[in-house]
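Task 17 of the worksheet. Students: predict the tertiary structure of the chain below and write it out as structure tokens. Keep your answer in the requested format; marks are given for formatting as well as content.
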Amino acid sequence: MNGKTIPMIENCEGIRGTGYDGDIAVDDIKLLPGPCQPTGTCDFEVDVCGYSNTRNGDNFDWLRSAGSTLTANTGPSVDHTTNTDQGFYMYIDATGRNKGERAWFYSQYFQPSPAACFTFWYYMYGANVGSLRLYKPDPSRTVMLWNATGNQGNIWRQAFVQINSSTAFQVTFDGEIGSGYLGDIAIDDVALHQGFCNNFTTIAPSTVTPMTTVSYPPTKYDCTFDSKNICQWTQDTTDQFSWTVHKGSTTSLDTGPTFDHTTNSINGYYIYIETSSKHPNDTARIISPMMSLSTSGQCLKFYYNMHGEDVYKLNLYARQGSSLGSVLWTKIGNQGNVWKYGSIYLTPQSLSPSASSTVNVQLVFEGVVGKSYKGDIALDDISVNDGLCPPSGKTYDNLWR
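Model answer:
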């Protein structure tokens, strides 16, 4: 319009159906500069672009990750889009899986097309890699469009798949576990193009600025303590004393932090255990809301301060029912007057006792008193994200409530 800016209002309209089974929801609305990416295009840098794991029928889920996978000598170390450990891709983790287990990753529905070319980059590196297949599920039958099996080398490779459909269609990535844990499989830069694949002999992935900060949506487990409470966490009633919400230095000299982690000032709040007038091995615990922990896992992130010559121990548990189980993470002794970052990737298989499928747990932080008052321990900025923890060296932002 002659270079002029025109104000506009976007409306989302929900229309009621014929019964109560008709709820409609929207989420994560964004307005971005430039034209929209074609339907089916995704580099996984921000989200999964309408692709999704299935809720039933397979054995586990595809994961969105950056950097190397959790197991050496399998999977990529960088994504395809940015060719760095800051870029994201989707993958299946073979660790803890049985041979033949499968994970399905579905596209949204695409418009009918007499000639469409579906392209993607895949990474199948490892001595025990199984199979990667692409299907087009139809009402009457499911058609396999493409497949690869076994170790394809430590490199991203591109696939071109011709599709002809007179009806709306979707595609499904099917990752199958091979004979061992060295079998991670990854995909990146998926796209659907109109036309024949021989017209797309070289398709460059989209150019993006590598992300240095990962943003995660808020969860009910997140807490900065700056509301002067412990959010949705609760104090355990079976321990010897409670964690204290506090700002500035603790009441004892030469122990505890001098400021919080969130604001890096004396005005910000954190929680800590005050060890004055306590007995050695006395404990204080805080308990998270109930967490439904699935096989795709969740990452707990937090900052801790363990400053003082008689600091003893900070433990983390995942309580199942009334049982704390075994310690999943621990830190012992004086760590200096500094806030340190801690994280742990939790899956049902990593628990003690372990589980093979989704399990309900509550996370428990436990501070244990040392031999004197110089043993204060503090926590701040607790948060949780779905899937793997941010790669080493990557910063992150949680979108606090």
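Marker's comment: Residues 16 and 93 are 41 Å apart (CA to CA). The first strand starts at residue 52 and ends at 53.
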